[in-house]
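Can anyone check this?
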Amino acid sequence: EQRRIAGALREQMAAVEKARTAAQARLAAVKALPAAFLCQVFPQPGQPLSAGWRWTKLGDICSCINYGYTASADFDVKSPKFLRITDIQNNKVNWDSVPGCAILDDDENANRLEDGDIVFARTGATTGKSYLISKPPRSVFASYLIRVKSHREQIEPDYLYAFFQSNGYWKQISTGARGGAQPGFNATMLAALQIPLPPLSEQKRIAGRVKEQMESVEKALTAADEELNSINALPAALLRRAFNGEI
């Protein structure tokens, strides 16, 4: 009976391992989808552009590129919120968990976050990571972030943020970032980034397509994660059944 149970377990564990390998491959394929899609949407620097498009520098289409406020985070201060790099996780911010800070009115006005702002991590392992501000509470941003305000009559914030996820953007970041263990990217370097700029109507169309694709990818990622988690739980379940005499 021991040999029979051991043989059955070996077969079932082998099947689990095969399923795990396949699920991991599916998850990796889903994770690769955004980069592949964005490569089709955005040209690389130096590539020819479609009619009506042009290359421009980020600084030429922005009204403001500035560093955040230097202060100590204080969880006893409820407002304004004090957004830090670490508060941005998986392209989301849980504003309820973001601390506040003590700040003078003039400094708050200069650093207040508004709908359509984009903030960037300017140092450390997450250098270049960006986040599009959408309907924020009363809040300011910390000094290790850079905030970009775009000229709305020239560029759509959703389009700009989509470009900041593309391979063409990340190539410029990796080429320009300097430093050893803690790479950095400053506001001057950010302003010099090359941006492919189509007409405003085309920007809005592209931003809409990118949003739809990313929402589909997010659903696929959730499904792939759930599948892998279910498979990873199978060995323990099989062992329980085996030693309960159910195999």
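Reply from J.R.: I decoded it. The mean pLDDT is 92.
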